[in-house]
Design a protein that fits this description.
Number of helices: 0
Distance between the termini: 22 Å
Order of helices and strands: EEEEEEEEEEE
Strand content: over 45%
CATH class: Mainly Beta
Number of strands: 11
Low-confidence stretches: none
Radius of gyration: 18 Å
Shape: globular
């Protein structure tokens, strides 16, 4: 039996070199999206359009933290995931509205960029 590997759990978020405690992280390396096109006779094909790479993090709103001080442009974001992967996005933009949820003491911040690097520990061929 193969040994178990940590796939999820504890991770690290760094924004412009500052490390933050976080609750959740989501990211997407994809630069295109596809949409099925349907005509009167059924599926006709698909449409492909460009999208930005994304990193979304939910952070805790500590009393020492000023949410409005987060960089709106040129943010360097690095994730070190529990499975050993390192995700890097340089010169990212903060998109959407950042709102603090005072009931749970967190806020979600979304970064978008042109490229995202996914560094794996040992690649698996799919």
């Amino acid at each position: 039996m193969a040994s178990l590997q940590r796939l999820a759990g504890v991770d690290t978020v760094s924004i412009n070199g500052t490390i933050f405690n976080n609750t959740t992280v989501e990211w997407s390396p994809f630069t295109t999206t596809k949409e099925v096109l349907i005509g009167l006779g059924g599926v006709a094909g698909y449409k492909e359009t460009y999208v930005t790479t994304k990193i979304s993090v939910t952070l805790y709103d500590y009393s020492q933290l000023t949410v409005g001080d987060f960089p709106q442009t040129s943010a360097d974001v690095q994730l070190v995931l529990a499975n050993g992967k390192v995700i890097i996005m340089n010169s990212a933009l903060v998109t959407g509205v950042v709102q603090v949820d005072s009931e749970v003491g967190t806020f979600r911040i979304e970064f978008e960029g042109v490229t995202l690097q996914e560094q794996t520990t040992s690649p698996i061929t799919i």
